[in-house]
Design brief:
This protein is an all-alpha fold and about 100 residues long. The chain has one domain. The protein is built from 3 helices and no strands. Helix 2 crosses helix 3. The radius of gyration is 32 Å and the shape is elongated. It starts with 5 loop residues before the first helix and ends with a helix.
Amino acid sequence: MMPETATDMVDPQHASTAARPLAAARITRWACILASLLLVVLLVPLAGHAYLGAFSRYIADDFCTASSLRHMGGLAEIGEDRAEWINVCIAGAYDVGAVVAK
């Protein structure tokens, strides 16, 4: 059996793992670089939006509260918020009770 590549001549035990042709190795390397670059290009803006989006909920709550205060007045807004939160707490307690009862 004649060696096929220079690697086979140096190490006959690894004859089955002959080096790929240079062109295929070059294509694979560029594909890996392109995939890595594409991944970075797509993930950096996504990470930025995720980071900035973490704060938007609080800003939206502030604008909603300010609008309610402006339209209803201070005491009416406090009463409505209290009624909404009491309903949330009652619904949560009902859910917990339903789970415990099972």
